[in-house]
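chain below, 202 aa
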Amino acid sequence: MILKTFIEPPIDNNNYLIIDEQSKEAALVDCSAVDKDIEDALKNEGAKLKYILLTHGHFDHVAGIRPNPDVKVVMNKEDLGWLNKANQYLPMFGMPEMTIPNIDIFVEDGDIIKLGNLEIKVLHTPGHTPGGVCYYVDGKVFSGDTIFRESVGRCDLEGGDFSQIVKSIEQKIYTLPPETLIYPGHGRMTSVEWEKLYNRFL
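prediction:
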């Protein structure tokens, strides 16, 4: 598996490009901006983007999505409300309004997305938003805004629930092997082992 990270302004979102080395099929975890560097990375690897995997529907995780019949947009249906409100927030951050994308695939907890020889498992982790999900593949979990290094996603926005996010982390992330690497939606990479020791919110 090839993994590349792209940090996108203005909120420094982490977008992750996953490429299956054999099939050269690729998935982008969150799409915060239209980024030529991502296009160049795909070309350099001889890869083709197959999926955009949304961790949740907040505007800063979806703003770069553009219509493309060859790319399937994936998310949990419980965050459609947030996705549909993206243009209420984009101008506040100096970002252009977007065409709200159609969701091609709605995923639920336990679903498997096939990317070449890779199997990406969906973990439904509500708390930051009702439809928040993480994606687990090859010893790595892409956590969106569910868990950060020594912190958790904010729960004071519409649909947020602190007790629920704690439950999600304890039941869906802390049950993964301790060596599992966590790639969050913002900030530095961490691990399950590290968060069990040092995350003061749990």
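Helices lie at 36-45, 59-62, 80-84, 86-89, 162-173, 192-198. The radius of gyration is 16 Å.
thats it, cya
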